[in-house]
Amino acid sequence: MGIQESLETLKQCQEIDRQIHRNQQELNSIPEIVQELTHQFEAEKSAMNQIETRLKEAQLRQKQKEGELSEKEGLTRKYDSQLTQVKTNKEYSALQQEIASLKADGSLLEDAILTILEEIEHIQGEVREERERLAQVQKASETRKKELESQVDSLKGSLAELNKKRVEIISQAPPEIRELYDRIIEKKGGLALVPVEGDACGACRMEIRPQLLNELKLKEALVICENCSRILCID
């Protein structure tokens, strides 16, 4: 097989290698997309947990305040019952002051409980909203992951067919040319054969020496770009 025929074979192979490279890049990017979807779901889940923690803390404060109020009310009733049993005005006055203080404290506790109840109601609204958002994110994530799984299967199938076709085509080239091309493809991101554009390499844009241009036109040997080491051709 002459150089012209070898170049035609490499051109066919290069087109397949372009598709292989694109498909492989797309395939390689999918795990990162899946990871990002998982990260988004976990972030929403963490936000949900934080809101639920705030709700539990508010409910605990409510319970504590209600306990304090119950204690104050119990003491008030106790002191009320003792008013009829005291024997001096001083004792009576002291009990009345204590009862008044307990009632004042109780009033403050009732206000605090009302404030906490309003806070709880607001947080419960946040919980409902976040649960809806979390469910939406989870549903979207699961749908997208299924699409990506299907895409992976499709890309793997396509790559298998392309690689099979590539083997058939590249096997037509002489061994030394095939080995050179394969080495360049592996090192140069799926681009081993590039056309000359004007007087420059179509890949790196480096100007090609006149002597190399003449060798390209003669088509007696493969010509390699002196800058990027890719195989040059003239369309």
Describe the structure.
With 235 residues, the chain is mainly alpha-helical. It has helices at 3-82, 89-170, 175-187, 210-218; strands spanning 193-197, 200-201, 223-224, 231-233. The model has no long low-confidence stretch (mean pLDDT 95). Strands 2-1-4-3 form a 4-stranded mixed beta sheet. The chain has a domain at 19-172: Orthogonal Bundle (Helix Hairpins). Helix 1 (3-82) runs antiparallel to helix 2. It contains 4 helices and 4 strands, in the order H-H-H-E-E-H-E-E.
Would you summarize the structure shown here?
With 235 residues, the chain is mainly alpha-helical. The chain contains four helices and four strands, in the order αααββαββ.
* Radius of gyration over all CA atoms, rounded: 40 Å
Q: What's the helix count?
A: 4
Looking across the biggest beta sheet, what order are the strands in? 2-1-4-3
Low-confidence stretches: none
Please report the total strand number as a whole number. 4
Layout of helices and strands, plus pairs?
Elements: H1 3-82, H2 89-170, H3 175-187, E1 193-197, E2 200-201, H4 210-218, E3 223-224, E4 231-233
Parallel strand pairs: 1-4
Antiparallel strand pairs: 1-2, 3-4
Helix pairs in contact: 1-2
